[in-house]
Amino acid sequence: MANGDVDRMAKSSDRGLANLDYDSGTLLLDAWTETAIQRIFGQGIWVWDSRVGRWRTDACNYRLVRDVLATRNYGTIDRVPQWQTVNWSKIEIPPLRPEQQKAVDAWQQTRRGIVVMPTGTGKTEVAIQLMASGRCSTLVIAPVRDLMYQWHRRILRALGYDAGILGDNRFSVKPITVTTYASACIHLAELGNRFQLLVFDECHHLAGPLRSDAARCSIASDRLGLTATWNPDVVNTKTAGAVRWDDILGQVVYELEIHDVRGRTLAEYEVVRIPVALSDLERNRYDQLSEHVSDYVLQRRTDDPGFRWQDLCAETQSSQVASRILRAFREKQAIEERAEEKLRVLEDLFRLHPGERMIIFTGSNAMAREVSLRFLIPCLLSHCGKRERLDYLEGLRDGVYPAIVANQVLDEGVDLPELKIAVILGGKGSTRQAKQRLGRILRRQGEAKAILYEVVTSNTREVERSRKRRKNDAYEGTRHRKVRKRPGAS
Fold it and tell me: 289: Cβ–Cβ under 8 A, 6 or more apart, which residues?
C-alpha cells in the first residue's frame, strides 16, 4: 500500500481529521483504520477498544506516538498534553561539581534514564539543575512524606517556587508538584497529562507492579530516576515480575561509584565490625528455640519436600502448632537482635566518642525503643509525626540531642546533619540498606573521618545477614574489633 493510501486511511473521520486524546492513564486515537495503524506504528502499540470505538495504548507511549505523528502530516490533532512552561522567580543553585555536571550532560542526551550516585554526592542538585534549565511542568515523586516535604523546601530555596503538594491529606496541584509513590499511584491516571518531566527519587521503589503501572499512566516525555543503589536483578519476580524499565523510566545513563569520590566529595571512612556474644541465659534460650523450629521444619519437609517457610506462615491462620513455631522463630530473632551485650558495646562507643553526634540504626522498633529508654535519646520511627521528626533532626544538628536511634525511617533520602559516627545494631541482609546507612555519615566536613560500627551477635543468623550486607564495594576493608568487657561487667 502506498504512503498516500495510508495517509487517506488515517484521515478517514467525518471531518477528515483524527484526534489523539488522553483518557485515565491511556491514549485514545480515532478515525484510523487497522491497516493504517499497523503500517505506521507496527504491532504491539495500539489495541482496539470496542467499548469506545477507538484505539487505545498506555500513556507512557506518548513520546513514541508523538514522534511518529510528527514525521508526516497524518491529519491527527494532538489534544493530549496540558503542561506549560515555568518561569522561576530565582535560580540559586551552587556550582555543580564535575561528577554532577557529567550526570546532567549524560541525562540530557536522551532526557530519560537513571542517575546512580552515592548518598551525599548531590543527586538532588542534579535534578534541580535539570528542572531549572528545562522550565517545564514537573512532578517529583518521593518514597515517603518526609522526603516529599524535603523536596518542597529544596525547590523553594533553589528556585523560589512554592511547589504544590499531593499527599499527606493535601491536594494542591501546580505546574511544579511534589508527591509520594503512594499518592502517585492514586492520582497519576487523572493527572498523567499535566507534567512533562517526572523525577523519581529513590527510583528502585518503582519495581512493584502497582507503582510501575502508575508510571505508565503518565505521558511525561522526560523521566529522571535518582538512586544511590541500583541493582535491577534484586526485583522480586514473584510479586513484581520483570519490570520494563525502558517503558517507564529508561536505563542507567550515569553511574558514580563510591570509591571514585571517597575522600574527595565524600568523607574518608572506615567500617568496624564488632562481634558480641549472647549471655548464658540468652544462649540457652536461643539454642532451645532454634532446635524447636528446625525440628518442625525438618519433619514437615520429610513429609512434604516442597514445604516452604511461606507455607508455615500461611498455616498459622488455621494451625496452633504452626503459630507456636512462628512465635518461637520471632522470639529467637528478638534474642539476637536485642542481645544485652549490644547495649553494653553501645555504651562503650558513647564513651569512646564523647561529644560527637551519633546515629544508631536498629533492625526493629522494639530495639529502637529499648535503646531510647536506656540512653535517654530520641527514637525516630515511621509513625512519628512531621513536627516530632523535625524537632529530633534539628535537635541533633544543634547539639540538643547527642544522638538519635531509628529503625528504617532514616535509611534513605532524608537529609541529616553532618554526622560522622553511626552504629548498626541490627537490620536486613540487604546491600542496599547497608549502603544507604553508610551514606548517612559520608557528607564531607573538612578532613573529619567517618566511622560506621556494625555490632553483630556471634553464632546467630545475624552473622549471615552481616556477610550479605558486606558484599558490596562500600564495605571493602572492614576491620574486625573485639570490645573488651569492663572490669566487673557480667
Answer: 328, 329, 331, 332, 335
pLDDT mean over 247-274: 88
Question: pLDDT digits over 187-197, tens only?
Answer: 999 999 999 99
- Measure Cα distances from 35 to 9, 19, 67 in Å: 8, 17, 19
Grid-cell match 555543580, residue found: 96
Instruction: Supply the DSSP symbol for 85.
Output: B
pLDDT for the residue numbered 235: 46
Three-class HEC string of 174-188: CCEEEEEHHHHHHHH
Taking residue 241's Cβ as centre, other Cβ atoms within 10 Å add up to 13
Q: Are 178 and 151 in contact (CB under 8 A)?
A: yes
Supply the DSSP string of 203-258, one letter for each residue.
Answer: GGGGGSHHHHHHHHT---SEEEEEES---GGGS-TTTT----HHHHT--EEEE--H
- The model's pLDDT over 307-329, given as tens digits with 9 standing for 90+, comes to 888 888 888 888 888 899 899 99
Cβ atoms of residues 142 and 136 within 8 Å = no
Residue among 457, 455, 456, 452 at smallest CA distance from 477? 452
Please give the domain boundaries of the chain with CATH numbers for all domains: 3-78 (3.40.1170.30), 98-256 (3.40.50.300), 269-278+339-480 (3.40.50.300), 280-336 (no CATH)
User: What are the start-end ranges of the H helices in 115-208?
Assistant: 123-134, 145-159, 181-191
Which residues does residue 139 pair with via DSSP β-bridges, in sequence order? 177, 198
Where does the pLDDT of residue 389 fall: very low under 50, low under 70, confident under 90, or very high at 90 and above? confident
And the C-alpha cell for 89?
522567580
Mean pLDDT computed over 201-213: 87
